[in-house]
Amino acid sequence: MPLVSMRQLLDEAAKGGYGVGAFNVNDMEQIQAIMGAAKETKSPVIIQASRGARSFAQDRYLFHLILAAAELNPEIPIAMHQDHGNSFETCKSAIELGYTSVMMDGSLKEDGKTPASFEENVAVTKKVVDYAHERGVTVEGEIGVLGGIEDGHGAGGTGLEHVTDPDQAVEFAEKTGVDALAIAIGTSHGAYKFTKKPDGSVLKMDVLIAIHKRLPNTHLVMHGSSSVPRDLQDIINKYGGKLKETWGVPVEEIQLGIRNGVRKINVDTDNRLAMTGAIRKVLWDTPEKFDPRDYLKPAREAMQKVVALRMTQFGQAGHAGDYQAVSIAEIAKGYKSGALSTKPLVAR
Ligand SMILES: [Zn+2]
């Protein structure tokens, strides 16, 4: 199957009532781990690259690795997504390269650190939407600001400072025509999300549910949604790591989100933990080894295990064969004719 539009993938997820994991990649092993899991569980999937990933791996390498994934797995729908685009130019460069989806994170200014005004966010996001939709490319926007910093991107803080206001979410969706909407409900990027198992005082699932009630047909996106499982933390610390005690977003909260309009769930930290734990174990147990394959293979396997588990938990497992890819050119026509609506349904 060629790369598919993320809009198509999320529309199908909404029909089926499931969520789709969006997994970050930086290298070949991570792409292979995701595809191994997608094949094993028969899952459609979103592969996403941050600006940091694009610069680490170099655009052409990463792009062609993801194309190889599509070539080798014709039965799996794959959307290629730019994670946290900081400007129109970043999104444009991803679209020119062949990404089928971009996130314009206008919640922050172009420096990727300073919270932007609502008006600035609407303006830059709308500009990306106009450019992307003309080319059949999906757009995710963000309203509210997440906590934490990852790859130099983020406002820092706890994630509770700029929780999304449901009224603003409605206005943002109406003014921009985004296909998917990332909201801030107290989550943060990175491993250190919560200092104890999160409850409603720090993880605002009530805000998510309120937004879904107002925007029942809008695909919601949960960022910073690794679960940071204790067993993965323990492996790292058992083999010489020094992670501080931390909590992520419990899977049951994500599943509650999926029942309330969440269609895309971003997961990165869990995969990083799984790979690092596996590498540490090999190097600790067998310090005489020096062939990178000796630790990259177990690292890839450990990540595949986590991804496959998330695919099952999010409900995307078993859905790879539900539909045929609509070409990006057809998707562009759909936006133009209005067949693919960008006017959100608003419950008042
Ligand atoms: Zn994010």
What key attributes describe this structure?
348 residues; alpha/beta; 8-stranded parallel barrel; 8 strands; 46% helix; globular; binds zinc ion
Radius of gyration: 19 Å
Helices and strands, in order, run as HEHEHHEHEHEHEHEHHEHHH
Mean pLDDT: 95
Largest sheet: 8 strands, parallel, barrel
N-C termini distance: 40 Å
User: What shape does the CA trace take?
Assistant: globular
Q: Give the strand content.
A: 5-15%
Helix content, binned percent: 40-55%
Description:
The protein is an alpha/beta fold. It contains 13 helices and eight strands. The chain has helices spanning 6-16, 28-41, 51-57, 59-72, 88-97, 118-134, 166-176, 205-214, 230-238, 251-258, 269-285, 292-314, 328-337; strands at 20-24, 45-49, 78-85, 101-104, 138-143, 180-183, 219-222, 262-267. An eight-stranded parallel barrel has the order 1-2-3-4-5-6-7-8, surrounded by ten helices. The chain is globular, with a radius of gyration of 19 Å. Zinc ion is lined by residues 84, 189, 223-224, 266. The site of zinc ion has 5 residues, from loops.
